[in-house]
Design a protein that fits this description.
0% strand
Length: 70
Amino acid sequence: MDVFPLIMAFVGIIVAVITAIIIAIRARWVRDTYGPDFGIVDKVDAVMTPELWVAASIAIVLILVGAGTP
C-alpha cells in the first residue's frame, strides 16, 4: 500500500477544515456587519475571496486524488 495518497487525503481534509473555519468566521462577520437584508449574492462575494476559492478547490483535489479518483 502506498502511503502517498493517504497523506494527500489527510492534508486535503486538514485544508478543508481550516477553510471551513475561515469561511464560518467571515460569514458571521458579514452577517453582523451588513445585517440580514444583505443579498445572498453579495454575501457570497463578501465571504468568498479568491484565496478561499483556491483553498477549497485544492482541498477537494487533494481528497479526490488521495481517494484514488482520476
